[in-house]
Give the backbone structure.
Amino acid sequence: AQEIGLITREIKLMARRYKIPVVLISHIRKLNTASSMPELDDLKDSSAIAQDADMVIMVNRDANNADYHKQRTSIIRVLKNRRTGKLGTMALELNENYYLEPVDYEPESY
């Protein structure tokens, strides 16, 4: 956990120094319940990541769905946004041309 904190701080300093955006990708721990959506605490070493991140965005698909590999809808959630403070959730679906399009989001189905 301490090593992750050192790495994220160095990357944030580098991004500020060079005035560039940086995207870091992390995986999450296994969720406690099959139906729950991932939260900030589910990130590995989340305290270090949450402290240094300006924004945390999660992409989630329902792995318990029988047609998981055919599933074309992903849920995008902004869990932390230091710049504007706005948080939210939306669903995107991969269309036949392989473009992501917004679709109606029904929280109880995910």
Summary: The beta strands are 55-60, 73-81, 88-94, 100-103. The first strand starts at residue 55 and ends at 60. The two ends are 30 Å apart (CA to CA). The first helix runs from residue 2 to 18.
